[in-house]
Amino acid sequence: MARSELQSVVKKNMRHVLADDLSACERMSAVLDEAARLAAPALVRMLREERFSAEEVRREPPGCLPELPQAMFADTPTENLPLAAAKLSADMGAYLAAYVVRLTAEVKRAGLYPSPSMFAARAARTAPMRVAVPETAAFRRAMEVLAARTEGVEAQFVRSFADACDAVVGGDCAYCILPLENSRDGFLSTTLRMMTENDLFVTRVCEIADESGVVTRFALLCREGDALPDGEDAAQVALRLSLSDAAALPALFTAMAALGVTLVRTTSQPLGYTDGYAQLCTFGGTKEALFAWLLLLAATRQSCILLGVYETVTSI
């Protein structure tokens, strides 16, 4: 058979495979619509009863989560296993993403705007809002930028990062300002350690450049119950993500891409009690996409802690 004829046969066979996949996708779409419709009432009830949280969703995940058992490829020839595994992960991720998108739409139809801030406790703000700020020129500038859109802010100047954290933990201040990272040194391990040890939560971020051109990202931190409501521009969430099952990664990355969520930055943090690492990740996207992503992580029982839901405030 001539080469051109072989190419024609291969293309024809590929079209048949793609047509079969398309037909399967259409059938699965109808199944996912029905699954989301059945699962949505429990999710909406959680929200209306103010029981909604990542922990609650993990305990009582929305029913009918898509599941593709590995056993379905038990009879696959060894040489085809890599392709079969890739297809399984891609299908699983796409189905999970489609499912949580449908659940998010059901939440929206119930009159509850799906925001990632729903995964965090949010306390009513009372004036004055006291903020612990290390007393340097850079921190004063960060204070001006971060507080520009909030009324009733009072600065309480302190001597060190530790004093700023202690002011929040001890209740003297509701918030503190600390540097998250800079363009010279990357993530600042001291701040990350203080955040995790004291359960501090990122609620706003700004970028300040010094005279030498080094750009530092400063964060307004608080205990989670004192977090500011996220604004219209909130488009990033910070997570401490620890995946015990590496096999879940391909499906999760597929789902993340399908939802339109981007991984903005990540850094590793030693767990301490084992040889493993947690990933400190920042994800970006629309608020609706980020809500769906957090819902997916909780529903699939991933081990993650929400470190912040925030907007990046531009300099004034």
Structural commentary:
The protein has 316 residues and is of the alpha/beta class. It has two domains: 3-119 and 234-313, 2-Layer Sandwich (Alpha-Beta Plaits); 129-226, Periplasmic binding protein-like II (D-Maltodextrin-Binding Protein, domain 2). It is 43% helix and 24% strand. The protein has eight helices and ten strands. The protein has helices at residues 3-48, 54-59, 81-109, 137-147, 161-169, 189-198, 249-259, 287-299, and strands spanning 129-134, 153-158, 175-182, 186-187, 200-209, 215-223, 236-242, 262-270, 277-284, 303-313. Strands 1, 2, 3, 4, 5, 6, 7, 8, 9 and 10 form a ten-stranded mixed beta sheet that branches. Strand 5 (200-209) and strand 6 (215-223) form a beta hairpin. Helix 3 (81-109) crosses helix 8. The radius of gyration is 23 Å and the shape is globular. 35% of the residues are buried. The model has no long low-confidence stretch (mean pLDDT 79).
Question: Could you name the key traits of this structure?
Answer:
alpha/beta; Alpha-Beta Plaits; 43% helix; ten-stranded mixed beta sheet; D-Maltodextrin-Binding Protein, domain 2; single chain; 316 residues
Mean pLDDT: 79
The CATH topology of the largest domain is what?
Alpha-Beta Plaits
**Which class do the helix and strand fractions yield?**
alpha/beta
Total strand segments: 10
Number of domains in the coordinates? 2
Helix percent reads: 40-55%
Uncertain residue ranges: none
**CATH class of the largest domain, please?**
Alpha Beta
**Gross morphology:** globular
Assembly state of the chains shown: single chain
Number of helices: 8
Which homologous superfamily in CATH is the superfamily of the largest domain?
ACT domain
Q: What fraction of the residues are assigned to beta strands by DSSP?
A: 15-25%
Give the topology string: H per helix, E per strand: HHHEHEHEEHEEEHEEHE
Radius of gyration: 23 Å
CA-CA gap between termini: 71 Å
CATH architectural group of the largest domain: 2-Layer Sandwich
Q: Major β-sheet, in short?
A: 10 strands, mixed
